[in-house]
Amino acid sequence: MGRARVGGPFFCAGRGFTLCPIFPMESDPYRMSDQKFALLGRPRRIWAVGAIHGDAGRLAALHEDIGARFQAGDRLVYLGNMVGRGALVRETLDELLYFRRHLMAKPSVLATDIVYLRGGQEEMWQKLLQLQFAPNPLDVLQWMIGQGVDSTLAAYGGSAQYGIAAARDGAISLTRWTNDLRAAMRNAPGHGALFSALRRAAYTSGADGQPMDILFVNAGLDTAKPLHMQADIFWWGGSSFHRIGDPYGGIRRIVRGYDPAHAPGPVLTDFTASLDGGAGFGGRLVCGCFAPDGTLLEMVEA
Q1: How much is the pLDDT for 282?
Q2: Could you give the CA distance from residue 151 to residue 145 in angstroms, rounded to a whole number?
Q3: Same domain membership, residue 295 and residue 168
Q4: CB 281 within 8 A of CB 288
Q5: Do 131 and 170 form a contact (C-beta atoms < 8 A)?
Q6: Does the N terminus or the C terminus of the chain have fewer Cβ atoms within 10 A?
Q7: 128 with 80, same domain?
Q8: Do 176 and 260 belong to one domain?
Q9: Spatial separation of the C-alpha atoms in residues 196 and 35, rounded to whole Å
Q10: What is the CATH number of the domain that holds 209?
Q11: End-to-end Cα distance, the chain
Q12: 102 and 170: one domain?
């Protein structure tokens, strides 16, 4: 299968300076709260959708399959990288919002039953909207374009060429450009709210809210660190995912949606599942249906 090509963290290696973070990480450690993590409780089943990368057609086909079988007590988790790379970013977000309304029309389905995770593409887009604060905005923008952010730009009327010109012109032009992009996003019904609702990870949990059995992430996890200290490892730290060979605390299975190594997917091991089928690049969109204990019940592809 074809594989999506998304790069690493927001680092730059331009002329005259060393490899450095473009945007500083938050100074406070991440707290285990539903503002950053989605607590799934003990659901009936969890449907987890791998990286979409703007492939609205396959997403609509997958939704048709899931929608016919989704029941009260189920959860639906999109594993990030919903945007970027593919040509139909705006249509993809519209489809996500439409399907959310469709599911919530079913009896006893709640808004909290549907979760969207932050992936590398969503992280790039939200950092791009703050590009005027980067110490080297032109280098940052050119790196982002190489990672496929230009399709998200196009979804909101932007262009890489104009952005590069604005970055060369200076902070005032760049601020005007990013403000126009932000306004276009907000003018697309529901898009801004969806980006604001992104979570870092999702997990099944007991009555005390502590993680247990199954954890959902975008790309990676450092098993040597507790969950609240993962920071951007969730979307940029996927290179060691294939080496996970033991339970992570009380977590029996870790499920991710994007594989930066571009191995043929989906891939299932005793303790992990990688659901990147190459959507957006001629590959297939993959959805895994899991029991709350981490058992894979079925795999659906579109």
Answers
A1: 87
A2: 9
A3: no
A4: no
A5: no
A6: N
A7: no
A8: no
A9: 10
A10: 3.60.21.10
A11: 13
A12: no
Distances (CA, A) of 256 to 179, 183, 218: 33, 32, 5
In this structure, what token pair is assigned to residue 203? 């997990």
Instruction: Give, for 256, the enclosing helix (H) or strand (E).
Output: strand 251-256
Which residues, in sequence order, are bridge partners of residue 47?
76, 289
> Which residue intervals of the chain are DSSP H helices?
56-69, 89-104, 120-128, 137-146, 150-155, 160-169, 171-187, 191-196, 233-236
Q: pLDDT, tens digit, for every residue of 144-184?
A: 999 999 999 999 999 999 999 999 999 999 999 999 999 99
| Contact by Cβ (8 Å): 227, 214 | no
Distances (CA, A) of 299 to 121, 143, 273: 24, 34, 11
Q: Residue type for 110, please?
A: L
SS3 of 218, please? coil
User: Which range of residues forms the domain containing residue 251?
Assistant: 47-119+198-301
DSSP states of 161-173: HHHHHHHHH-HHH
Are 88 and 132 in the same domain?
Answer: no
Q: Which residues contact 264 (CB under 8 A, 6 or more apart)?
A: 1, 3
pLDDT digits (tens, 9 = 90+) for 82-125: 999 999 999 999 999 999 999 999 999 999 999 999 999 999 99
Asked whether residue 251 is domain-assigned, the answer is yes
Residue 244 to residues 9, 175, 249, 252: CA-CA distances in angstroms?
A: 21, 42, 12, 11
